[in-house]
Specification:
Distance between the termini of chain A: 30 Å
CATH superfamily of the largest domain in chain A: Alpha/Beta hydrolase fold, catalytic domain
CATH architecture of the largest domain in chain A: 3-Layer(aba) Sandwich
Function (chains A, B): Transfers an acetyl group from acetyl-CoA to L-homoserine, forming acetyl-L-homoserine.
Largest interface: A-B, 57 and 56 residues
CATH topology of the largest domain in chain A: Rossmann fold
CATH class of the largest domain in chain A: Alpha Beta
Subunit structure (chains A, B): Homodimer.
Number of helices of chain A: 11
InterPro entries (chains A, B): AB_hydrolase_1, AB_hydrolase_fold, HAT_MetX-like
Number of strands of chain A: 13
Radius of gyration of chain A: 21 Å
Order of helices and strands of chain A: EHEEEEEEEEHEHEHHHHHHEHEH
Pathway (chains A, B): Amino-acid biosynthesis; L-methionine biosynthesis via de novo pathway; O-acetyl-L-homoserine from L-homoserine: step 1/1
Shape of chain A: globular
Strand content of chain A: 15-25%
Organism (chains A, B): Siculibacillus lacustris
Oligomer: homodimer
Structural class of chain A: alpha/beta
Helix content of chain A: 25-40%
Largest sheet of chain A: 9 strands, mixed
Chain lengths: 393, 393
């Protein structure tokens, strides 16, 4: 492999994304280093955009890979170039934080199929010179992990001290711990599952149908057409956002409180605060996310079923593992309920793995892993400290 | 009031609905009998379409009003004129059924704001000669009950032996038992709440935004424009349909089973059975339901908050009631969880009402009230038999 690396301010993806395109490190892989995808397609050239924090030690033994969720990106601990908001996990990653960038070399890459600089459906299809659109091959969580492994190789890192992530990030953690077991010293899958449930596939399908129902989607070729399916993508985000919260947190935060009024408006404007909140979630999301990437990344989640790749027995995915696991779930998470984490823990136990499990009492649903949940941070810090001692760090 | 009544095969609403319009009884109210709405608008003329089953006895004491849910209609126990399917509650209503049409005179009317013959946004606005569209006044559950009360007056029924319904039908039952307490001998609110939760408002708002995002919606004037926001309405239905089922029933029914294939398709067709099932739910729904009615009827549900109308104390809504109540919920219903029913029961207890409550162990979520759930049917039959004895029927 002879990747080239350089910081870029603009990716060569599409005129629509160019203006938004962040300053990010990008590893480019040419025809000599294609990515072999689960669907059978050989992707080349391709690239992966990433951020790093901290310094790789002389032993190259202190690398941590953070895997992001569906709508996350590589800006785990630095200001987002489009929104100007803090990194999505600055509560966890940074100097003196549980994943301490004074001690660890942290890498976070945009997933394959994403829209923040890694090759995805908005990238240029070399065969046509136009954006891939739906001609982009459907990618899987395993493909995402393959692309990250290529990046880790490229960075000269033999193995990872820790792979951590929540939600779809947790799926990648599990995939790393299975497919690249010998390169993972410790694994931290949070608020995730070893496969997507029927209900989760259903919600993803609603989101995809919302995008595809928007005539501005143009059968996926909106970039060439100069349109943008913002309304459909906003509806998709609104529906998904409900699943990230809990009924009780919605009740506590919004209840039936009215928005900027004292009585019902008897119309279809936002009467209730929850309505304007959701509308804001939808409209702000479309400014930073590509609609086709939304289709591809949700599809990757739907397809994830780690047991199915191992004869239907999840424990076989971890046979003989030496990785230390810490599995975490949240009581109010109904997208990836604790039962999903227990399934993982049982499989790890059956595989003889070293595993600890914590179900954290938290009221804010699936999104708890992104929020200020001190118990999660304490457990996470304790697990990392223990693993670091074992690793001699 | 001097309503005229006649069976109609076609309503005068709009050319789009004409072809679908069912054979139904319709009570028409002219300018001399306007409907006073909560929003302050006086609606006239207006009409209400309904079905009846069984015979009113000489005492006029055996009348039962069935209230339908969001996407239900008056065809509670007869073939649906558009879909050709059996009535939506034939398991419960009919000769020899728990609500026995050999004994009771059953009335079921399409709700105000609906699209099966009762005045709604697809009806003709007398001021313009065109369909109302979004100029139709926003109606409430209380307005629906007012319109039903006018129908019951019109039918010469002094009071109702029973008012029964599930989901939004249950909201109407509660409203009847509160606003028209002396006319309700027994009340059967099933799988419902005394107010819509924040999460339920959120899901409704997603549905409305999906409809309004469809350019064929034409700001609500699609009937005049000759278009139909079918894609948006289908997405709304898909999202809502997930909330009518339980995670466990989806898992049992569909799991991750593939549709017409043995391996993943690596595309965006329906790979999984749950996807094609949801798509079918969406596409079949739009054939029988008006998109603006969907906006109005969901809005009525959002606005429902019986306690708010009584100084914030739900018990005050039922003060001094002589009605017998049977409240039912289902263990797997997460749209109207048992806690919502318990709130109703506590308020009824505080008001000194005669109330029984059953939480039924059922696996199929909110839709359980429509399904073959023998325990529900037994409890329902027992409650009705006891109430009938007390009533001397």
């Amino acid at each position: 492999m002879q990747p080239t690396e350089d910081p870029v301010r603009e990716a060569e993806t599409s005129r629509h994304r160019q203006a938004d395109q962040p300053s990010s490190l990008v590893a480019r892989f040419g025809p000599e280093a294609p990515l072999m995808l689960d669907c059978g397609v050989t992707l080349a050239p391709w690239q992966i955009a990433y951020q790093t924090y901290g310094t790789l030690n002389a032993d190259r033994s202190n690398a941590v890979l953070i895997c992001h969720a569906l709508t996350g990106d590589q800006y785990v601990a630095s200001t987002h170039p489009v929104t100007g908001k803090p990194g999505w996990w600055e509560l966890v990653v940074g100097p003196g934080k549980p994943i301490d960038t004074d001690r660890f070399f942290v890498v976070c890459a945009n997933v394959l199929g994403g829209c923040m600089g890694t090759t995805g459906p908005a990238s240029t299809n070399p065969a046509t010179g136009r954006a891939w659109g739906l001609d982009f091959p459907v990618v899987t969580v395993a493909d995402m992990v393959r692309s990250q492994a290529a990046l880790i190789d490229h960075l000269g890192i033999p193995d990872l001290f820790l792979v951590a992530g929540g939600s779809m990030g947790g799926m990648q953690v599990l995939q790393w711990a299975s497919a690249q077991a010998k390169r993972v010293f410790a694994a931290l899958p949070i608020a995730t599952g070893a496969r997507h449930s029927s209900q989760n596939i259903a919600f993803d399908e609603v989101g995809r149908q919302a995008v595809m129902a928007d005539p501005d989607w143009r059968d996926g070729h909106y970039l060439s057409a100069g349109t943008s399916p913002k309304k459909g993508l906003a509806v998709a985000r609104m529906a998904a956002h409900i699943t990230y919260m809990s009924e009780s947190s919605l009740h506590q935060k919004f209840g039936r409180k009215l928005q900027d009024r004292e009585t019902l408006g008897f119309g279809f404007d936002s009467d209730f605060q929850i309505e304007s909140y959701l509308r804001h979630q939808g409209s702000s999301f479309v400014e930073r996310f590509d609609a086709n990437s939304y289709l591809y990344v949700t599809r990757a989640m739907d397809y994830f079923d780690l047991a199915a790749e191992h004869g239907g027995v999840l424990a076989h995915a971890f046979q003989g593992t030496a990785t230390r696991f810490c599995v975490m779930s949240f009581t109010s998470d109904w997208l990836f309920p604790t039962a999903d984490s227990r399934t993982i823990v049982h499989a790890l136990n059956a595989a003889g793995a070293r595993v600890s499990f914590a179900e954290i009492v938290a009221d804010r649903g699936h999104d708890s892993f992104l929020l200020d949940e001190p118990e999660m941070h304490q457990i996470l810090a304790g697990f990392i400290a223990s693993a670091a001692r074992a690793r001699g760090l």
